[in-house]
UniProtKB/TrEMBL annotation:
Coiled coil: none annotated. Residues 34-100 form the Cupin type-2 domain. It holds the Pfam family Cupin_2. This is Mannose-6-phosphate isomerase, cupin superfamily. GO terms for molecular function: isomerase activity; metal ion binding. It comes from Chryseobacterium vrystaatense. Keywords: Isomerase, Metal-binding. The lineage of its organism: Bacteria, Pseudomonadati, Bacteroidota, Flavobacteriia, Flavobacteriales.
Amino acid sequence: MIHSKDNSKYYSWGNSCESWVLNDSTNLSVKQEKMPSGTAEKLHFHEVAEQVFYILKGEAIFDINNEKFSVKAGESISVQPQSKHFIANESQDELEFLVISSPSTHNDRIEIEK
């Protein structure tokens, strides 16, 4: 089956952030996500999942184990299991990206209180 934002499972998260689930099997999750300007997710980690974030539009700021990275459209960044991380959109523009997780992050997200 061909997947797109038009025919995929949709949910919203955080402060007006959006997600379309393009694939969610036990071994692989692929989501297309959108974050408005000034939004960020909560600091967390995954026990077993490795993730790759590929930026489609805009610029993302990643905090991975207390180190900051700026990732622009056409670039990607990997997050290893057990790494404390979050993504933020500190720009004035909308941010859109793919997040690919192996295995799926279903039931594998531990939020960290700050």
